[in-house]
Amino acid sequence: MISWTFICRVDDIPPLGARRVARASGLDVAIFRSADDQIFALLDRCPHKGGPLSQGLVFGTSVACPLHNWTIGLCTGQAAAPDEGCTPKFAVKVDNGAVFLDAAELASHATSATRPLAGPCQRSAAAA
Residue 63 sits in which domain range? Predict the structure, then answer.
């Protein structure tokens, strides 16, 4: 049996926008709201270069990554062709305007995923 964790109200998520949910370990989860009030949840990380999907533009049932404009499906986390890659999705339940995520998934799903490091490359001591 699934144990659901209350996250927020649907109205707390901007239409065609997102809200981030911090976790005890792992990257944040992004909760998205479509124009017709469908709610989706993905790891807040683009499969391409790790961009924060929660800052992307939501259209239909997709989000455009703010870094390189990759289109990621909100239903599956899959990048649209010709791009390839997938970001983990999370189970969502909406009940009477309240948004819930699966507590077990929040605690354990995709907790080892990281963002790429930005900035100049570090040179090794051997190359110096």
Answer: 4-108
